[in-house]
């Protein structure tokens, strides 16, 4: 009783708002439901494409990937990064439409409400974390002190699980909101956030807000997707990487200097160590160039979303597998000149990749010797494969189960 006069005399700017104080029609449940649908679709696409990318790099026996179609990983990762950027305005818009709910009192009214609020908290935190760290990774700004791939993958499951719980709880509300919108976006049913004077412009405002979000999303996508979709390259003003900006007209993520292999890669005594059932042999670059050469036009498709096709020439991996005494579809373990333990210093080519015509130990790019930063003296190039697994500066191939 003593505090009531103090509360009644409190300035308006100190008063805790109530949901009814927010009169803007953009907080209408129909707007929230539509944004939720778009955001849910984006989260689903990001989860599926991210899972595919992760399983490419960390394969499992029950879901093997093969070399066909050759463009599949390029499309997958380009879509993943493009939708990741597009999700940013969707998340901001969604948070704006629902922020009045932060002032609902009491904050929890039962177990179902508590579960709903908990799922929202986890979903918002995980989604914002994924977007921020994902964009930083695309721009190669590793300001966080943890392994991006492992944490990004684990958090993706957290976000997807929270999204499933939230959608399951809110589905009846979404159906009612869509039904109301289907009858008429200017329905006379005011709803909790409808302006009390029944302003006839409310429907226009809602449509204008949703239209603005759509324009912002498409605009941001157009300014970044050019690093994957070549025809939009000229307008990719926010794209962190021009895929054709680099030696021999192809971008580079890791240079020879950065990998610490300059001296080893240019040494006159470099020779490929080929280990197989027939034993161990050593092939100089001249030996490799004297073998039957095959040309393939294949993309480098980077996990950061950029990709570009190039013309590669080299020795088919299946020919090298056969030369070692193995079968043309034996798996091959690839070892780089990079220091052991370095990220992506080794990779594994499953048998389906080894047997494919276009899987090469590449020696030239666009008709010229490989640039040092592109993997001279020899590198792997294979269809439908992440760029980080197209091992550069190859020093050793182990065919089949050879030790």
Describe the sheet with the most strands. 5 strands, mixed
Counting DSSP H or I runs of 4 or more residues, the number of helices is: 11
- Extended strand count: 10
Average pLDDT number: 88
SSE order, as H and E? HHHHHHHHEEHEEHEEHEEEE
Low-confidence stretches: 1-8, 184-200
Q: How many structural domains in the coordinates?
A: 2
Helix content: 40-55%
Rg value: 28 Å
Give the strand line-up of the largest sheet: 2-1-10-5-6
Coarse shape: elongated
Q: What share of the residues does DSSP label as strand, in percent?
A: 5-15%
How does the helix and strand content classify structurally?
Answer: alpha+beta
N/C terminus separation? 83 Å
Report what the structure shows:
- With 403 residues, the protein is of the alpha+beta class.
- It has two domains: 9-235, no CATH class; 249-399, Alpha-Beta Complex (Sulfite Oxidase, Chain A, domain 2).
- 42% of the residues lie in helices and 13% in strands.
- The protein has helices spanning 4-8, 29-57, 72-98, 111-138, 148-183, 202-222, 256-259, 262-265, 285-290, 317-323, 351-354, and strands at 272-276, 279-283, 294-301, 307-316, 332-336, 346-349, 360-365, 368-369, 379-381, 394-399.
- The strands form two sheets. The protein has a five-stranded mixed β-sheet.
- A hairpin with a 2-residue loop joins strand 1 and strand 2.
- Residues 1-8 and 184-200 have low confidence and may be disordered.
């Amino acid at each position: 009783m003593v505090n009531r006069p103090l509360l009644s005399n409190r300035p308006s700017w100190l008063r805790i708002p109530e949901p009814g104080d927010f009169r803007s029609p953009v907080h209408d449940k129909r707007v929230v439901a539509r944004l939720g649908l778009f955001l849910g679709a984006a989260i689903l696409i990001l989860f599926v494409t991210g899972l595919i990318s992760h399983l490419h790099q960390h394969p499992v026996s029950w879901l093997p990937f093969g070399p066909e179609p050759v463009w599949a990983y390029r499309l997958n990762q380009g879509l993943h990064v493009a939708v990741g950027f597009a999700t940013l305005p969707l998340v901001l818009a969604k948070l704006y439409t629902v922020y009045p709910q932060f002032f609902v009192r009491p904050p929890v009214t039962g177990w179902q409400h508590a579960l709903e609020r908990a799922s929202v908290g986890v979903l918002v935190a995980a989604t914002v974390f994924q977007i921020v760290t994902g964009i930083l990774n695309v721009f190669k700004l590793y300001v966080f002190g943890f392994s991006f791939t492992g944490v990004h993958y684990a958090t993706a499951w957290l976000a997807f699980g929270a999204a499933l719980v939230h959608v399951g709880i809110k589905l009846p509300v979404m159906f009612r909101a869509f039904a109301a919108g289907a009858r008429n976006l200017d329905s006379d049913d005011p709803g909790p956030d409808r302006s009390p004077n029944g302003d006839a412009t409310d429907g226009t405002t809602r449509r204008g807000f949703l239209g603005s979000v759509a324009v912002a999303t498409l605009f941001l996508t157009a300014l970044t997707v050019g690093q994957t979709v070549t025809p939009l390259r000229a307008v990719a003003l926010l794209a962190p990487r021009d895929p054709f900006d680099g030696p021999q007209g192809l971008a580079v993520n890791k240079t020879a200097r950065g990998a610490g292999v300059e001296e080893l890669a240019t040494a006159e005594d470099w020779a490929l160590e080929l280990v197989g059932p027939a034993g161990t042999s050593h092939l100089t670059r001249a030996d490799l160039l004297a073998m039957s050469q095959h040309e393939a036009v294949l993309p480098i498709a980077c996990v950061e979303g950029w990709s570009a096709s190039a013309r590669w020439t080299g020795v088919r991996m299946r020919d090298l597998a056969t030369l070692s005494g193995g079968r043309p579809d034996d798996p091959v373990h690839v070892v780089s000149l990079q220091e052991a333990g370095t990220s992506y210093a080794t990779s594994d080519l499953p048998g389906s990749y080894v047997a494919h015509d276009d899987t090469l130990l590449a020696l030239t790019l666009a008709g010229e010797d490989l640039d040092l930063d592109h993997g001279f003296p020899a590198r792997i190039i294979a269809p439908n494969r992440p760029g980080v697994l197209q091992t550069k500066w190859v020093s050793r191939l182990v065919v089949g189960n050879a030790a």
